Amino acid sequence: MDDSVAEHSRPLRILIADDSDSDRLILKTLLKRLGHEVLDVANGLDAVSVFQREAPDLVLLDALMPVMDGMEAARQIKLLAGERLVPLIFLTSLSEAGALARCLEAGGDDFLGKPYNRIIIEAKIKAFNRMRLMHRTLSDQRDLIRERNRQLTEEQEIAKRVFDNVAHSGCLDASNIRYHASPLSIFNGDVLFASPRPAGGMLIFMGDFTGHGLPAAIGAMPVAEIFYGMANKGFNGQDVLREINQKLKRILPTGMFCCGAMIEADFKLNQLQIWNGGLPDGWLIRTTGELLALPSRHLPLGILAPDQFNADFERVGAAPGDRVLMMTDGFLESADSAGNVFGEQGVTGTLDRLDDGDHPFDAMMSAVHRFTGNFEDGDDLTLCCLEMMDEAGLATLPDRAAPSALAGPAEWRCSYEIRERTLGEFSPLPLLLHICMEVPGLRRKSGEIYTLLAELYNNALEHGVLELPSEWKHSPEGFGRYYAERNRRLANVEGHYIRFTLHHSLKPDGGRLRVICEDSGQGFDFHNHPSVAPGNSPTMSGRYAGRGLLLLKRLAETIRFHEQGNHVEIVYDWQFARTAENRDD
Amino acid sequence: MTDKPHLDEEALAELRDVMEDEFEVLIQTYVADSRDRIRGLQEALRADDSDAFAKTAHSFKGSCINIGAPRLGDLCLRAEIAGKESRLDDASGLLDDIAREFEQVIAGLDGLMVG
Amino acid sequence: MPIQTRRYDDGQTLVIRIEGRFDFSTHQAFRDAYEHGDPHIRNYIVDLSDTTYLDSSALGMLLLLRDYAGGDSAGIVIENCNNDVRRILSISNFEQLFNIR
Q1: In the A/B pair of chains, how many CB contacts fall below 8 A?
Q2: For the CA atoms of chain B, what is the radius of gyration?
Q3: Domain-wise residue ranges, chain A
Q4: What are the STAS domain coordinates in residue numbering (chain C) (predicted)?
Q5: Is the residue at B104 inside a domain?
Q6: Is it the case that residue A306 has pLDDT exceeding 80?
Q7: Helix or strand or coil: residue A194?
Q8: Are B112 and B100 in contact (CB under 8 A)?
Q9: Is residue A450 a contact partner of residue A199, using CB atoms and an 8 Å limit?
């Protein structure tokens, strides 16, 4: 306010153009007495050139002047002023209406009659200065808004690029994933991440933050970091979800949250695990045509405290070719011109009409496209479809950049044991994988290492400590029973332990990792196990049923069982990478 | 129209107030300016240029009104109208009136200066 | 007014009734409805009988009310939802946090 008062009383630079020397002298003296700076000329041409050079705040112009008259000078001055408001007052003793109108048409803002009256002159100059300042404030504000908007768009563009780098480092482009997410969907609060799991399989997260714009986008970054960071290290969907929920609960204000769904696909076991908290129903579309809804069963992320958060996944068997479809609310809210929304009916209707050859993703996109008539609204939606695959048909994790084999720890040994109730609460796999990944030569093999560790660990836990018979998993009823029993038995693991001993050393052409996994379970008769000792033993006991052991044998140099079968030792060798030019991968 | 005074004492007093030390300069400027205008009117009349006659009369009128010489201003207005209506026959008589009135004004202003 | 409040005779229960759309535009009015600082209020009833629509920012506002009313110990009833409103509340599983009837 003080500024504007000062601004209002600041001396003005005023240009006078009048061919009458005495009139000019009177006016000039009057204005100087009022404290203004005065420039004066005797014709229109000079007025234009002085205006151009000195940029006065206000112009007083005689209508009739030699060389160039006031009308023409007014036109040129207004043109030069452009968007700037320079009040232009005609000095005139004209009284004929037509002549006065011509002055206004030429760009004049007012008249000042002769004889000059200093009170009127002062009042008019003040009034026009107010108008000039108001105009300037408005155009400054408009320019500021325009500039801010440009900045914001630019910043969003940069933020989006940064976000893309973080968010799309995953495997959204894998052949078995189809998705639609608008380029700026992040500013609608939508996120979609996908990552391969070190042991094979995939993890997908779709999220929808409350609100729009920056507040909605802000939570996306930590979620992306957590998702990719943890998925890469081999954490499962539950662990990742818990971490995301805990982080969002901590950083988001009450009232802001993230509806989301996590899908963990296991192509080895042919099963899907799904957690849906606040997103519309997902759908499993089987190759048989059967449809299974995957409804939201949980509160959105960022609402419940960690100890109240429920990260229980739903588990369903899914064969290669089965597809799972997830969408954000924006998809259901896609509206036609009359304001009708696509809705759940739109989704179920489309799914019910699916033909054999139809890809549900394409069917859904074209259905919503047809419904809305145009696709502008479609920019607010995210849709993703994951197809179950044959394990063999899936490309393994891409090799990371060729590491320097000399850097990093090469000769080391460690032992890690988890006991008692920790067995049911914590997976040591990410930690162990992390330790192994410190060895550059092993880093390229993270998938194989993870698989080795996971097979050893799962066998030790489920068949060693918990004594679950793996053949249960072969029937649909047994499948459910198996996992129910698993949870029940995990609550009762007093006195039990699983101990990993890892030992790494260098060899002339690479390195050797030796892993020993011991558990407190009963062990098994490995001497008569079909996979260990060739021979047709009917005692297909609970441990190492078929594929698990075969996998270990395939990946490791050697596998040996000790004691009563609850002590397994594997040896894994790796070779130095050849130079980049002649690597055959 | 002719009943207007040669000089508007009140207007002149205010001008003196505004101009302070420069009042004398103003009067001299006005007088010199006016002589130019009268010459301009004579030339326009000779050239039979009624448009130039009207414009010059208009400008002259403005400065007379401002300086406080209303009767001369009135005469200028009549000259302007005559010019606009292309009645240059009437104009020569008016021009004589203007010259005469101007002398009156000068005399009055001189008196003012001395006083 | 799209939001009206009244108190039960016992002086401990505040009824907040939302008319029309319950979305971000009602944010301030909804907050004003319960942030009046009356220490006697123990229970809140959010009456949605005239609520036609509810979006995720409304869910956020309900969470704010829950926080204000004591978090896990808050006594909040949400009642008279139409089908659309009910569906949105149940997709988000808000019955885990609120008594919805």
Answers
A1: 57
A2: 14
A3: 2-139, 168-393, 412-582
A4: 14-101
A5: yes
A6: yes
A7: strand
A8: no
A9: yes
Which of A18, A23, A120 to mutate against chain B (most B CBs within 10 Å)? A23
* Three-state SS at A415: strand
CATH number of this structure's domain A2-139, picked from the four choices 3.40.50.300, 3.30.70.3340, 3.40.50.2300, 3.30.230.10: 3.40.50.2300
**Rounded to an integer, what distance in angstroms lies between the CA atom of residue A280 and that of residue A120?**
72
Identify which of A256, A193, A264 has the alpha carbon closest to the alpha carbon of residue A227. Answer: A193
Indicate the Cα dihedral angle A121, A127, A131, A132, nearest 10°: 40
Task: Give the 3-state secondary structure of residue A16.
Answer: strand
In 3D space, the residue among B103, B112, B115, B111 whose CA is nearest the CA of residue B31 turns out to be B103
Q: How far is the C-alpha of A23 from the C-alpha of A38, rounded, in Å? A: 14
Range of the domain at B28: 9-114
Residue of chain C nearest A278, judged by CA positions? C92
Helix (H) or strand (E) holding A144: helix A118-167
Residue A566 pLDDT? 85
**ipTM beyond cut 0.95:** no
Q: How many CB atoms lie within 10 A of CB A48?
A: 22
pTM: 0.59
**pLDDT tops 70 at residue A527:** no
**pLDDT band per the 50, 70, 90 thresholds, residue A403:** very low
Pairing of strands C3-7, A558-562: unpaired
pLDDT digits (tens, 9 = 90+) for A308-350: 999 999 999 999 999 999 999 888 888 888 888 888 899 999 9
CATH number at residue B25: 1.20.120.160
When the pLDDT of each residue in chain A is averaged and rounded to a whole number, the result is 84
Ordered by start, the domain boundaries in chain C are 3-100
| Between residues A204 and A540, the one the model is more confident about | A204
Is B3 among the domain residues? no
CA distance A203 to A218: 22
Instruction: Give the pLDDT confidence score for residue A238 in this predicted structure.
Output: 92
- pLDDT per residue, tens digit, chain C (101 aa), is 588 898 888 889 999 999 998 988 888 889 889 987 778 888 999 999 999 888 888 898 999 999 999 888 889 999 999 988 998 899 899 999 999 98
Among all residues of chain A, which has the CA nearest to that of B76? Answer: A93
d(CA A63, CA A89): 10
Helix (H) or strand (E) segment spanning residue A383: strand A382-387
Task: Determine B/A contact with 3+ CB pairs under 8 A as the test.
Answer: yes
Query: Which among A538, A343, A411, A270 has a CA at the least distance from the CA of C88?
Result: A343
Do the chains contact at C59 and A277, CB–CB below 8 Å? no
Percentages (nearest 5) of helix, strand, coil residues in chain C = 40, 30, 30
β-strand A202-209 against A497-507: which pairing, if any? unpaired
> What architecture does CATH give domain C3-100?
2-Layer Sandwich (3.30)
Which residues of chain B neighbour A94 with C-beta distances below 8 Å?
58
Q: Write the single-letter amino acid at A122.
A: E
**Residues of chain C found within 8 Å of residue A210, distances taken between Cβ atoms:** 56-57, 59-60
Spelled out in words, what is the top-level CATH class assigned to the domain A168-393?
alpha beta
- What's the CATH number of domain A412-582, 3.30.470.10, 3.30.565.10, 3.20.20.300, 3.40.640.10? 3.30.565.10
CB contact under 8 A, B18 and A93: no
Domain count, chain B: 1
